[in-house]
Amino acid sequence: MSKIIVVGANHAGTAAINTLTKLSKDNEIVVFDRNSNISFLGCGMALWIGNQINGSDKLFYSNKETLEAQGAKINMEAEVNKIDFQAKKVYATLKDGSNIEENYDKLILATGSIPVHPKIPGMDLENVQRVKIFQDAQEVIDKLENEEIKNVVVVGAGYIGVELAEAFQRHKKEVTLIDAMPNTLSCYYDKQFTDLMDNNLKEHGINLAFNQKVNEMKGENGKVKAVVTDKGEFPCEMVIVCIGFMPNTNLGKDNLDTFKNGAYLVNLQQETSIKDVYAIGDCATVFDNSIQDKSYIALATNSVRSGIVAAHNVTGHKLESIGVQGSNGISIYDLKMVSTGITVERAKTMGLDVEYTDFEDLQKAEFMEEDNHKVKIRIVYDKKTRVIVGAQMASKHDMSMGIHMFSLAIQEKVTIDKLKLLDIFFLPHFNKPYNYITMAALGAK
Ligand SMILES: Cc1cc2nc3c(=O)[nH]c(=O)nc-3n(C[C@H](O)[C@H](O)[C@H](O)COP(=O)(O)OP(=O)(O)OC[C@H]3O[C@@H](n4cnc5c(N)ncnc54)[C@H](O)[C@@H]3O)c2cc1C
After folding, report:
1. What gap in Å lies between CA 52 and CA 396, rounded to an integer?
2. What is the pTM of this model?
């Protein structure tokens, strides 16, 4: 029998605990989480803030009671403040101020990520908000009740910033979205795609202030009054700062090997540089198949898979991660965009020699006059090997399932040429005989 300690019980931790308790009843599993809730689906946060779903109850899929019924001992509101990796000991402080020490045989670190906090004046002003945990979202929702909040500035036009801009606009707030880059979503899509999202936001009345860096939050009586950039000043009563996440690795950064951004470096079994210590989810690296290298991609999907992998290895069931492609999606008003792997722009910045092929067509046969929308697709492939390394799609139609095939193609190193004569079925209700995937592949140089 082993004693396994899990630090952090959100998506990665919960997946690990679920798997540990299923794989073996003999181990003692002790969990610490500093928060008061487990498994908050941040992906539903903007829908909740924007009143597109009924409340937050269904944004949780687990809790202390469920995990304890499975056999784990769960310490909530219990912050781990020190780990002695030599003595294999974890030190935690409970809500009532009491301290606990626990020895472990195996340790799983699932401490996640924290929002990047820019070092600029005014970040501590009232109504400068960050969004990560359930409590952050609840605070924003409570503040939106205040009718004095008419202008909201969202700093950061990644997928969270874009989703929140929509949510605030749905509250009839005057919304400005600021970013240092020239477009929204620039990490995941090339300009031809991000232009679609930018226009979509503009058409819905959201002001875009791109190519500018935020220098300061100005305040009055302790409350934020404006965001100042290198190009102008944007009056507002609330600011949401969502410029990215950094791995939360304070507990182990001085003992474990880390990636350039501070994430714990792990191998395909989620093992860190110290024996019997595993790291999963947003606090750890992933292996990115599109660049064939370690990387940092903070997504709930990656967290869950890494939790499953670690739990298998911890309990002696050898399992290796097959790597990830950073597959992602977004749906804003009625525009849906999905992507996987790398973009042409990112390839350029990494010095990779890629080609791409584009195509745009209706989803279904022309004679299908209802609910038939254009779909835009780009497939990115390595110029020399012709292996697919990325794909992007955009449409008002829900074509999202199509991107999974490209995710598998990248994972399995499929060439663009293999896709040209792939057996893709045709039925007018669904697609076209000369469908956009085939046509894009056939158009590859
Ligand atoms: C608004 C928003 C929208 C998102 N949308 C999506 C989406 O659509 N799709 C997607 O795949 N991903 C999405 N994500 C990302 C996803 O939420 C994260 O990748 C995921 O939460 C990572 O899970 P995790 O368990 O690794 O870390 P976290 O969720 O960060 O959890 C870490 C846990 O560790 C605990 N902890 C930390 N330090 C300590 C300590 N010292 N002692 C005890 N406990 C500690 C924390 O309390 C927390 O419960 C979104 C994130 C946000 C914020």
Report:
1. 18
2. 0.96
Residues of the chain above pLDDT 90, percent: 99
Residue closest to 241 by CA, chosen among 328, 177, 198:
177
Protein residue closest via CA to atom 7 of ligand 1: 43
24: pLDDT strictly greater than 90: no
**Looking at residue 1, what is its pLDDT?**
85
Question: pLDDT (tens digit, 9 = 90+) per residue, 393-432?
Answer: 999 999 999 999 999 999 999 999 999 999 999 999 999 9
Q: Does ligand 1 come within 6 angstroms of the Cβ of 140?
A: no
Residue to mutate, 18, 108, 248, ligand 1, most ligand atoms under 8 Å from C-beta: 248
Q: Under a CB-based contact definition with an 8 Å cutoff, are residues 132 and 153 in contact?
A: no
Q: Which of 315, 296, 265, 255 is nearest to 6 (CA)?
A: 315
How is domain 3-35+42-113+246-314 classified at the architecture level of CATH? 3-Layer(bba) Sandwich (3.50)
Average pLDDT over residues 106-118: 97
Q: Report whether residue 93 contacts ligand 1, using a CB cutoff of 6 Å.
A: no
Task: Domain 334-442: state its class.
Answer: alpha beta
Q: Is 153 exposed, middle or buried (0-12, 13-18, 19+ CB in 10 A)?
A: buried
Q: Looking at ligand 1, which residue's alpha carbon is closest to its atom 23?
A: 11
- Which residue among 47, 74, 113 has the greatest number of ligand 1 atoms within 8 angstroms of its CB, and so is best to mutate? 113
Domain boundaries, the chain: 3-35+42-113+246-314, 117-243, 334-442
User: With a 6 A CB cut-off, is 131 part of the ligand 1 pocket?
Assistant: yes
